[in-house]
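Amino acid chain:
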Amino acid sequence: MRKSITTRYFYATALLLIASTALMGFIQMYLSMVFFRAQSDRDLLLTVDNTIQILQEVQADHLNDTEARALTNREITLTARASDNNIFVTDVYGRIVLGSTKDPVEYIEEYYIDAYLPEKAVSGAYNHGRYTQMGTLDGLLPVRSYIAGKPVRIDGDLTGYVFATADADTMAEFLANLFSTFLLSAGLMLMVSSVISIVMTSRLTTPLRRLAEAAGKFGSGDFSARVPVEGDDELAAVAIQFNNMAQSLERTDTSRRSFMGNIAHELRTPMTSIKGFIDGMLDGTIPQDDYRHYLEIVSNEAGRLTRLVKNMLDITKLEAGEYQPNAAPYDIWESLTSAVFSAEQRLKEKKIRLAGFAPVRTIVNADQDLVHQVIYNILDNAIKFTPSEGEISFSVDSMKTKGMVTVSIRNTGKGIAPDSLEYVFDRFYKEDKSRGLNTTGSGLGLHICKVLIQLSGGQIWVESEEDEYCEFFFTLPAGEKPERKKYSKEIRASF
């Protein structure tokens, strides 16, 4: 069964809290035991010191044995009751000679008097000056107890030992109460932590659930789905990136749909014309005398189809990265001059003037064939939309952008509307208002220019003023520093 992130996070948090609580409880219990043990040892040793002081004072009073024993027994009993401890006084061999416990006097005399303490307890007190332990004195005590003892020295001579004991039940009771309190507080803490963990996990996973829902819609073909962006954390960053990706995919899908529609339209128009004229010739609608005229139209339409298919194949190869530019240093004016000479007849037919055609050797580092196609497409566009007796001007500048050469081709005419400038490089885009004079283009030439310039490491853009001019700019990586190159007067005077 699949577990959600909320469930796994809750389990992980609960396990961590339980483990931390258990470790904290263990440490608290251990420290409490150590503290209780140290406190008990201090209290027992204090009782031992008081008892030793009593013995020394009785010895200093020089009483007879009976009086001294009675006084000592009475003082030890008072001390034992005041401290709630058991006290045993032994001789130098560890034999109990006096004692005071909670038990009746008869039981003390019968069970403890003349009994011997363990050798390890006596030798420990003798060797180290004190003895502390927890046990039963080898079964002498009925229950586990805290034990402390010291040797008794009067006038520098060892006269015996004093041991004090206290039941360990008090510690067990203390630890039981402590453990109960700890369990109660730990349970409340775990309960509150669990609620907080569930709330926090839900808040953390809500963006992920929304992201999953949006991804599901994407999978089903709905590219309009978006993820709400809340906050500025990592999940918000993921949501922003997802929305950007969604917007890009939506644009791509829209472009794909538009692309397919434009392809169908662009292919259908010439094919309809070709079929109509051929059918007219076959069924006799078109007289034989007009065959040549209509066959020329059919040939032009077939050429249009060929160019369209070629442009589409070029775009496919370029965008798929199948073509790698062969960049090399060369003079950009060679491409400009070649493009102008190839359009010489069309320029003369429309009586278009050339301006700025003053070649200065300017080296760029680019693929000459690709750059020639870019210039040819832009110049072809300029010639189409420049009115008769209009003007086309050229400019090459290597100083505007460091390391780049800027080329511009400007033509007079109707120009491009401001709201259409950002779309002129899109596939199949045609602006009817300013480009309506021409119906033979496919709308792919400028898009190809954009791809080729980007492939060459440059940028391309357009500026226009309606009813005045249209100017295309593109940049290419610079090569050597520009130097003056002489061109023949014939080239300059050709146009």
Summary: The CA atoms of residues 293 and 415 lie 33 Å apart. The mean pLDDT is 81. Residues 5-60 form the longest helix (56 residues). The radius of gyration is 53 Å.
